[in-house]
Amino acid sequence: MTSHEPIEQEPAATAASADKSPALPAAAPAVPTVAADQYPGAAVKVEEKPARHRTPDEPKRSFARTFREELWADNSFTVTLLAIVLALICGAILMVVGNADVRDQWQYLFYQPGKTLGDTWEFVSTAYADMFKGSIVNPDTVNRWYWNMTTWQQVLYPISETLTNAAPLIFTGLAVAVPFRAGLFNIGGQGQAIMGAIGGGTIGLALSLPEVIQVPLGVLAGALLGGLWGYLVGVLKARTGAHEVILTIMLNNIAFLFLGWYILQSFIKDPNRSDAISQPIEESGDLPQLIPDPLLRAHYGIVLALLAAAGVAWLLKRGRFGFELRAVGHNPHAAATAGIKVGTTIALTMALAGALAGLGGTSVALGTAPALTVDMLGQVGFNGILVALLGRVRPWGVVGAGLLFGALQAGGNAMQTFSGVSVELVVVIQALIVLFVAAPALVKSIYRLRRSPAAAAQAGLAKG
Amino acid sequence: MEPGEIHALLGENGAGKSTLMNVLYGLLQPDEGEILVDGAPVRIKGPGDAIKVGIGMVHQHFMLVPVFSVAENVMLGAEPARGGFIDHAGAVKLVREVSERYGLPLDPNAIIEDLPIGIQQRVEIVKALTREVDLLILDEPTAVLTPQETDELLQVMRGLKAAGKSIVFITHKLREVKAVADRITVIRRGRTVGTADPTAPESELAELMVGRSVVLEVPKDEAAPGAPVLEVSGLVVADDREHRAVDGVDLVVRGGEVLGIAGVQGNGQTELVESIMGLRPSRAGSVHLNGEPITTWHTRDVLRAGVGYVPEDRSVDGLVKEFSIAENLVLDLYRSAPFGGRFSLDLDAIDAQAEQKIAEFDVRTQSAHQPVGALSGGNQQKVIVAREMSRPLQLLIAAQPTRGVDVGSIEFIHSRIVAERDRGAAVLVVSSELDEVVALADRVAVMYRGRVLAIVAPDTPRETLGLLMAGIDPNSSSSTPAGSGAGEQEPRGEGMSHGEAAS
Asked: Where is this region: Disordered (chain B) (predicted)?
């Protein structure tokens, strides 16, 4: 753990030392060039490595070897994975510190080292097992279902909870990722989600139309209101040059306080209740559940989220507007010179982001919330920033990160119930994951990751 | 250099003036040769060493912290401290002292970003003077100044000279040199080509400056000019600082001819071209393309009307470096068939076009999907030229088409430009390389201080062209040189330092 080696090594040195590492001698075939690399003086040879990728007469490197090298190399996937592991380890330490029984046992570390470590391991592993059982699948339930002691709905319950939590996070994550690609930092996911919840929720509670009409109407209203909230930011930025971070933060506050005022209005507030809550959302306005069952809360919000991610992925890769958006993000001067309307692009990008966040709010309002309340959304907009960063602002990365955060949330609830570990620990773990992902140099030095040969070859190409 | 002397370094862009001065100031290290101060050789490893031997420098781009006060900026790097605290009062006093001693009035407590450019420059000079330097290097100090500010600066320089300081004054403006310099050294392509007395006639200086270098040969036939394609009349354009950069330009470019715009950089060429392209609003005048007014058109529409544009600064305006070559090749074509439909892009068509253009324009790359930023400058330029020439053009505007490009690519790009002309397109070439303009153009327009001073044939003697570039019309010696006219006395009141806020 205390390596003082420089993290960034010369490509030549890295490739040579990777080939010499103890794990690989068996895999090193008797090919002249590779063998030559095993001598320290052969670094010059490595200069030719880039050509190796394409030349057919060289033997192909085995897939397993490439896989191993890439796995322990500093690519973003490995770093993300290891950041999660690191965050879980830190979480375990916090769990131990936070639990009086286990903490006390540590006083006897030298008298009863076995018991101390054993207790600690049991406590931590049980808590994390509960987390897994609460978010993915509980083997006990599967077993009992097999023996007909419980229903199949119980088996699906954890995954349903994960999906329920993930849907709004994927939306708000996309709402950060899309503007990021246009060079905009959207801190306003929370406000846009609130406006979306207001739009969707109002349609949900005010009308009672057939479900096939009212649900799409509600979703549309949510996207529209959130989109307007985002468009406002985009227009102000494009017209006046105001910074979007400041605008979005302010609009978050405005949206939050507007929601507080809105649910107290006579046409919204529940007349039968004294607290600040709106009338209940009509069943005909609710997003239908994936599986109609009182236990399984997962609703079509997750389907919409996946569709939105697919749409964003398509837009960024093949969409005409996506091309403009990325061009503006990388180099607004060149974009303007090429005739792209930079201001319009910024405004529309923020509108799209707002619509996505608005859908996130709607998916809460019409998916799980019984009525509109002030704190119905929690921190879903702000967590979207974390999800986007963890997903490296790529649409499918956001989906993965959203599912992970959803699972952590669902698992955290189970962990609190069964192991007595506070659910807030999950928030800490989520924050730590993103912190470690944001500081890749830290993760790389802790795990002593090496630069992958492929990446080194790429860097060599770029320089040559 | 003698003590108490103003020594002017004269040369075109890229002649090596700034490089030489950066060596003196220790920002660059010499490969060969030595520097003598008071007869003794010194090694200057950094600005600190330079200040120690008494050399101070005022950079072309100021090195000031915009949110600090004048006094704070002056003391930055040599803060007078008293018991661990910064002696703010001392700094203020020092600034007052120095500015009074040399006649450079300054308010030590003013914030830099509120000050006009000319005063900011004065802060830089005072900053150098507080370091007790004997030799002051001013790197193109007048490039950013208005005529009035320039006159003030020249006055200040005379004052410093009277106080016994030596000044190296780098510029390419003959008028200023003649006004203050005691001695003039002309540099061209990294060599001293001559030393002159300020009393020497301007034509001699211009000749030295422009030189008779090897003429670039571009094989081309006689032009066959057709109908006017681009007509610019009375165009007035402001630069970012709200100065009149283009001051009433009239131009006509006909189909099948190349009009070259020559001139020292910063005389309004950039703003002229940007205004034609719809990238910079015009204040007066009009631009017509094939008889149709395009003055207020958006860039997108100008491009669509058949105008090809090779921008001056390829890395800022021409390319998205992170984008692949294929994407950059459709940067302004992605909306038209076959590359893009109403909503989507046809990636196959884009790739096919990339393969074809890479082959046709000989872009040296491993694949069309490499980011364009990984290419060499010449190949990046080829990507831009390939893109702009991949559709039928009415008008091609090429600004500095071969800047920073290797010789082989230069020839190639020039031949493509001539090919566009022969196809019947009107071509406008802007270049600060006189050789390039002369080689390509069928007619040469010389710009000076936002005006077209004259339109001449490319075989005009270089001395004449050099004089024109310096703002002197040799044919009408009786008339006043452009620039002293009333239009030049541009009021620079409101919004001067806030001009960039609009971006």
From this structure: 469-503
What domain count does chain A have?
Answer: 3
Q: Both A255 and A358 in a single domain?
A: yes
**Which of B147, B182, B210 is the last residue in one of the domains?**
B210
Whether residue A64 lies within 8 A of chain B, CB to CB, comes out as no
**Smallest Cβ distance to B343: which of A320, A331, A334?**
A320
Residue among A321, A323, A333 minimizing CB distance to B316: A333
User: How far apart are the CA of B319 and the nearest CA of chain A, in angstroms?
Assistant: 6
- Cα→Cα distances A119→A126, B18, B285, Å: 10, 72, 85
User: What's the CATH code of the domain at B414?
Assistant: 3.40.50.300
Residue among B277, B322, B501 minimizing CB distance to A241: B501
Q: Do B379 and B397 lie in a common domain?
A: no
Per-residue pLDDT tens for A53-91?
444 444 556 667 766 666 566 677 888 888 999 999 999
List the 462-501 stretch of B: residues with Cβ below 8 A of A: 501
- For residues A89 and A236, state if they share a domain: no
Average of per-residue pLDDT values in chain A: 84
A250 and A326 in a single domain? The answer is yes
**Per-residue model confidence as pLDDT tens digits over B312-336:** 888 889 999 999 999 999 999 998 8
Same domain, B176 and B37: yes
Least confident of A90-99, A169-178, B190-199: B190-199
Could B332 and A339 be called an inter-chain contact, meaning their C-beta atoms sit closer than 8 Å? yes
- Tokens at B219, concatenated: 């094989």
User: CB distance A321–B334 less than 8 Å?
Assistant: no
Q: Say yes or no for a CB contact (<8 Å) between B331 and A334.
A: yes
SS3 A56: coil
Beta-bridged to residue B138, according to DSSP, are: B58, B169
Residue B1 lies in a domain: no
- Helices A152-181 and A139-146 pack at an angle, to 10 degrees, of 140
Same-domain pairing of A308 and A162: yes
- Say yes or no: A255 and A299 in one domain: yes
CB of A334 closer than 8 Å to CB of B319: yes
Q: Is A336 in Cβ contact with B279 (below 8 Å)?
A: yes
Question: DSSP states of A410-452 as a string?
Answer: HHHHHHHHHH---THHHHHHHHHHHHHHH-HHHHHHHHT-B--
